[in-house]
């Protein structure tokens, strides 16, 4: 097969082309950075890639903040127990003679800032080089930026026993204020556990808005205590409804992951009340 035939075969095979692209990007990235953070930070400075041990008693100190406290507990558990093994192990050896990293200190400028559109989500993360300090520092304007910094830190830890990237300086902030996902639970019902899994994945990708399109003409799965018949007649089934407690749980879970939950409820009028009209017509003809 000639080189031209080989090229034609490659570009006519999308799967092979994507595989080659992935391998190429991975190899190029591995040359410069043994571990890559996703999404790519605004500034990633790692002049001498190396790793140091993570202390078995690793601690995270942070200001008092209800939602951040939950995030800190979650990330500490991930950092100390996940034992991630990269697909391509970093070529840089562990600096075993360096003292282990014992703590991460979080500093927040404004602990009262709510999670609203345009909130400051920037952060800086500094991990000392080998034979340096045993403390890393995460500084953010708000708790929401600190959560993104914790996600970044967690991606710099791998192996069993855990080791962490050393001599790293990162400053990061999102390019877009609104980084969201829309899910329509009117046309296709998803259980609460699936919505929580989606929010968890959004947090891992530093996304911040879950646009929840709950109701539409297809179904009305939201239980409203003042009008229970809306869900009673409008949901796909008895096991395909969201209670008030379900909504509270999803919204609270989102806050703990730095994700705003924006519920959207279409009013049951004209087009959006078609299922009620159909129900009334059927009941009329059946005489019930």
TrEMBL record:
Gene3D superfamilies given in the database record: Chitobiase/beta-hexosaminidase domain 2-like (3.30.379.10), Glycosidases (3.20.20.80)
InterPro entries in the record: Beta_hexosaminidase_sua/sub (IPR025705), GH (IPR017853), Glyco_hydro_20_cat (IPR015883), Hex-like_dom2 (IPR029018), HEX_eukaryotic_N (IPR029019)
Domain Beta-hexosaminidase eukaryotic type N-terminal: 37-156
GO cellular component, one term: membrane
Gene Ontology terms for molecular function: beta-N-acetylhexosaminidase activity
GO annotation terms (biological process): carbohydrate metabolic process; glycosaminoglycan metabolic process
Keywords, alphabetical: Glycoprotein, Glycosidase, Hydrolase, Signal
EC number(s) per entry: 3.2.1.52
One Pfam family of this chain: Glycohydro_20b2
Catalytic activity, reaction form: Hydrolysis of terminal non-reducing N-acetyl-D-hexosamine residues in N-acetyl-beta-D-hexosaminides
Record's protein name: beta-N-acetylhexosaminidase
Organism listed in the record: Lithospermum erythrorhizon
């Amino acid at each position: 097969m000639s080189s031209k035939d080989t090229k034609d075969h490659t570009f006519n095979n999308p799967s092979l082309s994507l595989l080659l692209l992935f391998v190429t990007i991975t190899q190029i990235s591995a040359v410069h950075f043994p571990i890559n953070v996703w999404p790519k930070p605004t500034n990633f400075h790692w002049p001498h890639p190396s790793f140091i041990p993570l202390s078995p008693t690793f601690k995270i100190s942070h200001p008092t903040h209800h939602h951040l406290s939950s995030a800190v507990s979650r990330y500490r558990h991930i950092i100390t127990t996940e034992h991630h093994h990269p697909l391509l192990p970093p070529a840089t050896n562990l600096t075993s003679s360096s003292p282990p990293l014992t703590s991460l200190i979080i500093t927040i400028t404004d602990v009262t800032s709510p999670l609203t559109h345009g909130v400051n989500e920037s952060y800086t993360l500094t991990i000392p080089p080998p034979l340096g300090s045993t403390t890393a520092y995460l500084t953010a304007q708000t708790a929401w930026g600190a959560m993104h910094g914790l996600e970044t830190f967690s991606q710099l830890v791998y192996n069993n026993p855990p080791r962490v990237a050393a001599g790293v300086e990162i400053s990061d902030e999102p390019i877009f204020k609104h980084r969201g996902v829309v899910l329509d639970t009117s046309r296709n019902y998803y259980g609460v556990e699936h919505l929580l899994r989606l929010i968890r994945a959004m947090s891992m990708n530093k996304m911040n808005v879950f646009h929840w399109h709950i109701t539409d003409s297809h179904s009305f799965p939201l239980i409203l205590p003042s009008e229970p018949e809306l869900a009673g007649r409008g949901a796909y089934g008895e096991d395909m409804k969201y209670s008030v407690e379900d909504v509270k749980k999803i919204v609270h879970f989102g806050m703990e992951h730095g994700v705003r939950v924006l519920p959207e409820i279409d009013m049951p009028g004209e087009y959006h009340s078609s299922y009620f009209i159909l129900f009334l017509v059927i009941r009329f003809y059946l005489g019930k």
